[in-house]
């Protein structure tokens, strides 16, 4: 299976980086009259007079922004952007959350990929991500996006002290689309909280930060013609979650092995001869698993199979990145 490299990227802390694309646009229109008016009201309230809030960014507003930025240690200039908007509209705890999200996101993006903007508005946390140069992509853009959504949201869900501040998490990839996760969709498998990527849907971003809901049937809903939601596999050949049993068994075994590998590497001591011997044994076992995953026929996989594959490999990738960061 050619796409297996998304999860086999890290061995002894070495990461294979994959890149894709997306033309970025800000989640909030910072040039709009409504946004400028909010900024003016907040500046006045903070003691930086810019006159009557009218939604027009004149010289008085520009001067007030410059003074506010300087007084609050922000990037210098007259621009109304995410940094200024967050500083003016969010309280201390919310700003702390934004900083924590930014920190938690480190290590979950590849080379050439950037976190362009983080906003928190009306309970919607949004991360705008640029996936980089399309000419260097080694997997489809959608597949990489789902992997990044899984890694980023997993990291954010670990920030449990801030969970009350948001209702949805949106990861926006610009022209490629966005994936929206709601708080009531959080799962917990005993290892930690996560969103099930089998339900990830890339949809076009909507104006004003409102996420469009997908009309696609869920895993346990039937299509109008009575077929399975994936449209490719009969219910008799699939498990309860729509994944073909053989595919699920293989991927679950692979994930269990990779967790075993990560557990071993977290306590690995290169000076311990017995640990070195165990490492050789694990690498032999790894080769067997890699061969089995490579042998999986991508063309015969159902939609549910492939989404489960993305879910599993994203979790493995996250663990590998965490292990690699410790070296």
Would you spell out the secondary-structure blueprint of this structure?
Layout: H1 33-45, H2 59-71, H3 82-89, H4 92-105, E1 114-121, E2 124-130, H5 141-157, E3 168-172, E4 178-182, E5 186-188, E6 193-195, H6 245-266, H7 273-295, H8 303-325
Parallel strand pairs: 2-3
Antiparallel strand pairs: 1-2, 3-4, 5-6
Helix pairs in contact: 1-3, 4-5, 5-8, 6-7, 6-8
Structure in words:
The protein contains eight helices and six strands, in the order H-H-H-H-E-E-H-E-E-E-E-H-H-H. The strands form two sheets. The chain has a four-stranded mixed beta sheet with strand order 1-2-3-4, covered by helices on one side. A two-stranded antiparallel ribbon has the order 5-6. The chain is 41% helix and 9% strand. Helix 1 packs across helix 3, helix 4 crosses helix 5 and helix 5 packs across helix 8. The protein folds into three domains: 33-81, no CATH class; 90-215, no CATH class; 220-327. With 327 residues, the chain is of the alpha+beta class. Strand 1 (114-121) and strand 2 (124-130) form a beta hairpin. Residues 1-25 and 206-240 have low confidence and may be disordered. The chain is elongated, with a radius of gyration of 23 Å. The protein has helices at 33-45, 59-71, 82-89, 92-105, 141-157, 245-266, 273-295, 303-325; strands at 114-121, 124-130, 168-172, 178-182, 186-188, 193-195.
